[in-house]
Amino acid sequence: MELRHLRHFVALAEEENFGRAAERVFVVQQALSNSIKNLEDEVGVPLVLRTTRRVQLTPAGREFLEGARLTLAQATQTVERTRRAARGEVGRLTVGFVSGLAFGGLPEIVRKFRELYPNVSVDLRELTAQEQEAALRGGQVDVGLMLLPVRDPNLDSRALWRQPLVAALPSGHALARKRKLKISDLAGEPFVFFPRQLRATYFDQVMRWCAGAGFTPNVTQEAIEIPTLLSLVAAGVGVFLPIAFFERLALPGVVYRPVDGAPVVEIVAVWQRSNPTRSPHDPIVQAFLGVAQAELGEQVAAHDR
């Protein structure tokens, strides 16, 4: 039994006339008549009563009409769901992200993605870069959002956002009166920072920057979360060098100042070339990457302005 037979039957039942029904489904009348006869032969019972004036359904035909309409509707829905899946509009996506992106970047990406793709379920997992790489390899995460570098050669990445480091100072600090700093201005200042083992790349980047200015930061207090470090800055414990998008936290007691020659940190989306659960060219993954790049690109332009 083919769907075209069902379409022909529904058209005939609704038009009650072979000629009008044939025009509706764009076939000649004899082809429609043959299609209905083939359908009756397959079902094994008469479905229509043919008269000279109009076509009527048999009791079996009326019952068959209800099922035919339902089957055609389900087929249409299935085709549409398939097409939407091919466009990345339905499904599930698991996204890993480093904690700092919760304060800048991630909310904008997820909000826009959910707006554009409401039928895609997004599962967010806060993971370190190392944990994301492991989860990507194992297929537990589809896309990761992290800072460079990406160490696993089996992972691909796409640049999303470039952000300079800035100086976070207690609001009453003498350097807060300057509009822009040099990194050498911070020589001799107490620093608050992450433990190196938590963010080795970030830590080493800052240390190299400071070493180029002739000093080694005196890290007097460590913490693992950005809000905690900024709270320590507000308390006057030390200064901190966060990525610029943390300025949006606007924590009372903290001021941010640009620094000449500040290193730029690149935020990337990462995925596995041979994901065991989905292709890297999966339309949902590609849709998410497109939204992420568009959203963060707008923020970069706004920041530059």
Count of discrete alpha- or pi-helical segments spanning 4 or more residues: 9
Count of distinct structural domains: 3
Written as H for each helix and E for each strand, in order along the chain, the element string is HHHEEHEHEHEEEEHEHEEH
List low-pLDDT spans.
300-305
Largest sheet strand order:
4-3-5-11-6
**Helix content class:** 40-55%
Radius of gyration (CA) equals 32 Å
Cα distance, first to last residue?
Answer: 64 Å
Structural class: alpha/beta
CATH class of the largest domain: Alpha Beta
Q: What name does the CATH topology of the largest domain carry?
A: D-Maltodextrin-Binding Protein, domain 2
What would CATH call the homologous superfamily of the largest domain? Periplasmic binding protein-like II
Would you tell me the overall average pLDDT? 86
The oligomeric state is single chain
* Strand segment tally: 11
Strand content: 15-25%
Describe the structure.
It comes from Deinococcus puniceus. This is LysR family transcriptional regulator. By secondary structure, this protein is α/β, with parallel strands linked by helices. It folds into three domains: 84 residues, Winged helix-like DNA-binding domain superfamily/Winged helix DNA-binding domain (Arc Repressor Mutant, subunit A, Orthogonal Bundle); 113 residues, D-Maltodextrin-Binding Protein, domain 2, CATH 3.40.190; 97 residues, Periplasmic binding protein-like II (D-Maltodextrin-Binding Protein, domain 2). It is built from nine helices and eleven strands. It has a five-stranded mixed beta sheet, with helices on both faces. The protein is rod-shaped and about 105 Å long. The protein starts with a helix and ends with a helix. The C terminus is likely disordered.
